[in-house]
């Protein structure tokens, strides 16, 4: 249909064009074969002869490539030839023109079956009754048969010739692949096709099977080793195939036939073997071209199968492995076309002995070189192209996996990891830098290299030191401007020096009720074991407790942290601890790893006080002293380890790791760009300065470490913007502080020589300017470290010390500070106090203290104290007076005390200057309690002054005088208080009563006593006593004959006496009354209080109280109080 449509379109187009060009001309038409024809115009007479130019003329066309057209044309031609061959004359002409040879060569074996059958019929028709044609056909057939019979001779020649054009798919498919199949069939028989054996391999059907790997060491056999005896060899030999044919007695003729078969078969075998050349595998170009040919996967597979068939004998396998090992360099250019080769190579080296053989031959180092070469090509593409191939990195991945398969053997890894770790590390770092050429294969290769690196770097301490040396050698290979690649190396060094604890992943919890509280706690946790990732089980143990309360409907304990307690490993766990930390440090540390953490919950105090250990904190390191030299002992390698490459620079004469680290640090110019490198370098430096060896290295003058740190510090302070930057600055200052403290512990001459590397005063000025920055002022830790560094930079340098002190001179006028000061002045004075405190307490730090004293800062502080302190009247002035309160409240006083304390610590001139005039005043201040903690500050100052013997004696004299005065005042107050009690102190210091008359008033109650207060009318004459009674309504006469009997009241008592006031007070305090009721009324039941009569001789006041109590109308159980008693509510 499509062809018909195209014909109509072409005809219409040609028709329109011809009408425009030649009016009245012929109308074009299209032939059945698609050829355009021109028909003549119509004529009025049929017998009119058309001129020659009007005859149908076919236009020139080019031969097409349509299979249908060619097949149709062939069929038409065969039909025409068959018609011509039916005539003798034309048949003879066709034979003489070579039609028989052409049909035999081109048409007999091509086309469909119908065409081939027509060709055979045509050949038979041409040779019928034609001896000459028949002889020609016979001759052609015999030539082809002879050529076929001699084809095995030229198969290899044809194969080798075709391998030169193996890149052509046609040659590969038509020549090379059939030849390979022929060779493979010669090497290995075809698979059996019989119904009985079609599912069995050829090896399973053979009676003699190769026994690879079963060998006997002659030396050990001679030594009598049981593992190399004949019996042991016989056991490991494969069993012989079962003989399925039944043994029958043979006849004489059959025996003779078998003999002749063996005789002549052996002759043929010996004759054949005489001409076989021993196997010598060289660098066969044809094999390499076929194994890595990109055109045919089937050809590659057949070649691999052929090689695998040759490896049944160990000697041949060795030769094949040596040959294939030489082909490993072709993996890069071949790419994914080497998949079959790699599968073959992996299968051949699967057994351990062959891996060991190849390792000895150096295949591991060869693989490492190939990996490095592939990575270099990737980097070249990274630098020169902007496009990438998704298959990029296939060869690199396969080489890496092949290398990893060798290193799976522990013996090979132990022997070669030292020589391979450098290549693996460099390869991993190089792959991390790829951006454009990064593919999934490269990512997988990078992960594999990291896995190999992890396995190869875990070993003994000596191996670890060797790996650290390789890391440093690798760092030196990269440009100082490369701020990405060295990050991983320095991170590895940090993890080696101080391995950080890995966070645990998912774990499980089993929540169980205390078996002893089954009857008291409802519900049960039915979801055991619970995953730690389940909502409600973290992060704190309190969340676990709340989930238990919610699931078990213990609502009363939900918000009560004291009602329920959780136990892990029979230890009570604080609810504020993280669940993961409890699992890691309580459960796993005691052997529970791999099992679900068992958590027992119970109510607190239900069965008595708990006897289990209470775990409140898990930070065990803070409770014991940490020995840095032992914990960070691997950091010593950083000072002793030297790279494997020598340097011409004298600065690198030792080529130590710290030098390389300083070089990397000094190369940083942009903090934002190099932040990861800066952070890991500072982390590594902080670990290094934990040990003395590295501190001694870093204070060497030729390294100039402080100048490098100062340059980075100024960059950090200038770019202070966020919390992470503040952390970096704090770490940097901490490192500098440690190094400078170590340098300050050296002799003065050594430090002065070392301080020449600190640079000029500009560093001090820059750091002083940074102290006013918001990021520094708001961070107390950074400010403290910065002040220590500032002080250390100025020791022994008059110019720097003058610059530092000039910064604080404006705030040393303390009188002006009291009158008026700004927040900046207060911050400067605070910084001055911190500076005085952090100055080194040795001869080097005393250089700065001496300079401060020479500027008069100390004298100004002492004059301020002497001027404003109240006068001491023989040190007996009271500190709570208004003068002292005013003096204590002055703003500058607390700063002066802190400033003097810092300077006076282990500094004799300051101690003598302060002790000359201010010790009594300071001693008086230490007794003061105020919101500014002036007393504590003054006490700290006196303790600092006591380091000097003479000053200490002076302080003790003042304190002793104060203690004597206070003792006298206390004794006088004591005598006064004893006198008020009628007591005194005798000569022996014993307290005795002044007179025995006081004992006369002490006596016993002789009358009624209140059951509540235990006192009567003797000691409480103004309180009215009553008696508890019980009153109830009853009939006066039981046998009265009236219809309505007379009702009266019956009152009884056990004579429990009570004060009316005591009773009323107890009634008002309901809780107290119910507490006292069992005691006061324990002998009988009572409902009223009856007033008891007063004793004789009492005052009229008591009489009035009795009358008032008697006529007090108190309801008695809802009835009127007829007995004048007090009702009990």
UniProtKB/TrEMBL annotation:
Residues 891-1129 are annotated as: UBR4 E3 catalytic module. Residues 28-46 have a biased composition (Low complexity). Pfam families: E3_UbLigase_R4. GO terms for molecular function: zinc ion binding. Residues 14-51 are annotated as: Disordered. Belongs to the UBR4 family. This is E3 ubiquitin ligase UBR4 C-terminal domain-containing protein.
